[in-house]
Amino acid sequence: MAQSDDEDDYMNMTFEDAPKGPKYETSLQRAARKRKEGEARSRQKTKAEKEADAEAAREASLATALPETNKGFKMMAKFGFKQGDTLGKTEDARKEPIKVDIKGDRSGIGLESEKKRKFREQWEEADREAKRSKEKEGDYLEMRRLEAKEKKAERDLDSAQRTAERLAETEAEDKGTPQPVERPWKDVNILWRTRARRRAVIMHEKQQRRELNNSIASRLPTLAADDDDEEDDSKVAQGRDLAPFYTSLEDDLVDEDPELAEFEAQPVPERLQKLLTFLRDKFHYCLYCGYRYPDAELEGCPGVSEEEHD
C-alpha cells in the first residue's frame, strides 16, 4: 500500500532544541559575586572620581529644563514665560542660563589672569631671546662669510700680482730689454710693488743669515779674544755687530714709499679690480679663466669678476 504525500517523513524530521532550564549559580559563584559587590560598596572613591561624578551630576542638572512644577518656573509663568521662550524682552535674547564655571581652588579671582599675564610675558621674552639668538647666529655666519670672502680676495690679489709681474718680465725679455735685478722701488709698477718688496725683504734676511753663519764658521778661533781688542769680524761672528752687512738694498727697504702706502690703504677688492683690469687691458689675460687671449676682445670670457665665471 503506497504512502500518501501527507504522511510525515520521519527520516528528514528535525527536532527543536530542548528548552533550557533556569541557570543556577553555584555556591562558589554566589560567594564570589557577593564578595565583589561588597568590595565595590566599601571602596572609597578618589578625589578625582568624586570631582568627575560631581561634574557629571552638575552638567546633567544644567542640561535638564525646569519642570512646570518647579516654584521658579511657576513664578516666571505668572509673568508670561513659556517653555522654550527667551530669557528677556527681545526675541534674540538667550534661551539658556549663563553657564556655571566652578572655581575649584582657593586662589583669588584675579590670580588666574595674573598667571596668564606672567606666562604670556615669559613666552614673549623667550620668543625675543630666540630671535636674538637667531640674529646673533646670522651675524656670526655673515661675519664668517665676509672673512672668507676677504681672504679669498687677498689670495686672488696675490695671484694677480704674481701673474702681472711674470707677464711684464716676459714681455720685457721678448723686447730685449730685461729689467735689472736691483733697481729703485719707484721703478717697480705700483700694482705689484708690495709683492716685490716682500720678496726682497725675505731674500735679504736669508742673505744676512747665510753671511752670518759663514762668518761664524770662519772666525771661531778668535772668539776667546778680549772685547776691547776684538776686531770687527770677531764681533760680527758673535752676532754683536751686523753693520758690515747693511747694504744699499736694506737702506732702500726702510725708506718711506708714500705711493705704495696710499695704494695699500685701498680696500683689497678695489686693488684686485685694478689688477684684473690691468691684466685684461695690457696682456689680454683673464685671471679666472687662466688664459691669455689673442686679442683685446677676450672672446669667450664671461666677465671680469669671479662671480661672472660661476
TrEMBL record:
The record's listing under PROSITE patterns reads: G_PATCH
- Ranges annotated as biased composition (Basic and acidic residues): 36-58, 88-176
Q: Where is the composition biased (Acidic residues)?
A: 1-10
UniProt-recorded Gene Ontology molecular function terms: nucleic acid binding
Q: Name one GO cellular component term.
A: kinetochore
The UniProt record lists the G-patch domain at 68-114
Q: Which domain of life is it from?
A: Eukaryota
Q: Which InterPro entries match?
A: DUF4187, G_patch_dom, GPATCH11
Q: Where is this region: Disordered?
A: 1-69, 83-182
Q: What is this protein called?
A: G-patch domain-containing protein
